[in-house]
Amino acid sequence: MNKSTITAPNPQLIAYCGLYCGTCAKYKKGKCPGCQKNDKASWCKIRTCNIDHSFTNCAECYDLPMADCKKLNNTIGKLFGLIFKTDRLASLRYIKDKGEQAYATKMVDLDQMAIKKGQKI
Ligand code: SF4
Ligand code: SF4
C-alpha cells in the first residue's frame, strides 16, 4: 500500500463503535487491519453485537438509543474517551446524520480517530 492508498478516506475503515481506524498509527504501520477485518477482536461485545445484527456500525442500531447501550458505553470505552478526549457518540451521530463517506473524509482531513469531546465540526 502506498501513502495515498492508506490515507484515502474509506468508509470500510470505520470501526463498529464509530472510531476511524484509517488514521490509527497501528493501521498506518500495517500492524492492524482495522476493526472491520480484525477477527481477533472477538472479545469486543460492540463488534459481536454489530455482526450479530448485520449492522455496519452502531449508527445503524434501532434496538436502543445509543446513549443507553451498556455495551457501547462500557468502562474501557469511557476510560479511552477520557484519556484521548474522544466522543464516540458524537462520531456515531455524525455518521447517522451525514453518512459514512462524509465522516471518513472528515477524520482524514482532521487526522483524528473520532470527534473530540466538545469539538464542533
Ligand atoms: S472497541 Fe471494539 S468496535 Fe471499537 S475499534 Fe475496538 S474492536 Fe472495534
Ligand atoms: S448501540 Fe449497542 S446494541 Fe446497538 S449495535 Fe451498538 S453495541 Fe449493539
What does this structure look like?
With 121 residues, this protein is an all-alpha fold. It has one domain. The protein contains 6 helices and no strands. Helix 5 (88-98) crosses helix 6. The radius of gyration is 13 Å and the shape is globular. The mean pLDDT is 92. One iron/sulfur cluster is lined by residues 15-17, 19, 35, 41, 44, 46-47. The site of one iron/sulfur cluster (SF4) has 13 residues, from helix 3.
Poorly predicted residue ranges: none
Q: Sheet with the most strands?
A: none
Distance between the termini: 30 Å
**Roughly how much helix do the residues carry, as a percent range?**
40-55%
Strand element count: 0
Residues in β-strands, percent: under 5%
**Count of helical segments?**
6
The tally of structural domains comes to 1
Bound molecules: iron/sulfur cluster
What form results from the Cα inertia axes?
Answer: globular
* Radius of gyration based on Cα positions: 13 Å
Give the helices and strands as they follow along the chain: HHHHHH
Average pLDDT confidence is: 92
Structural class: mainly alpha
Write a concise keyword list for the protein shown above.
121 residues; mainly alpha; 6 helices; binds iron/sulfur cluster
List the helices and strands and how they pair.
Blueprint: H1 3-7, H2 25-28, H3 45-53, H4 75-84, H5 88-98, H6 100-110
Residues 46, 49-50, 53, 55, 58, 61, 63-64, 66, 69, 71-72 line the site of one iron/sulfur cluster.
